[in-house]
Amino acid sequence: MAPSFYIIQSGKDANVQTTFVPSLELEGSYEIALQSLEIYYSFPNVDKKNNKIRVSLNNGTSWNDLTSAVGCYEHEDINRELQRMVVELGGKKNDIILMANKNTFQTIMTIAEKVQVDFTIPDSIRTVLGFDSKIYKKGRQLSEHTVDIMRVNSIFVHTDVIGSAYVNGSQTPVVYSFFPDTPPGGKIIVQPSVLIYLPISISVISRLTSWLTDQDNRILNLRGEELTIKYHLRCIDR
To answer: pTM of the entire structure?
Structure first.
């Protein structure tokens, strides 16, 4: 093999795999670094595990279960989606208003006369907004907890050709990590100013697998958007 070369992987999933024919035979000791990475901020913060809300427009006499579409939401987006669904039920746009308190990182929910919001149902969006599992009635309600709008705080890039690094005391093959500072829907472009090289633990690469997780080791849901990863490999003892 050449003393220095690149490997580029791409796919429409957070787990990409490349097979080499023939296999890459590494003569000597090699190390690898992330050269660049490109993805869209498409991974949802509202999914099937937290997209439900139950509302009553008649003081709890009858209830309606509402479901938001899976997607990337900020406070304003959740408010618009909820108000749209309430209007479709025959209610008024301002029957329920959600606002972010940017000073305390809590949610302010204003509920109109005769309207109630039930956050006790399974898969409730309350976990995103910071509310307890209970029924809220007329008035200004402040969430008991801080919001969890940004579920992904860090993205870890894993590759199976390196020895394990340590994340929270556990071994895992992380070659790079970064903070997604692009807003939802935007393109994330990572180009490290200083390449961090880690030793490759095998001498023959027949297949290379890379995958992306969040800070809790959950595989990212890219929702079919393109992922491109570029690695630089170099020999250190020739």
So the answer is: 0.83
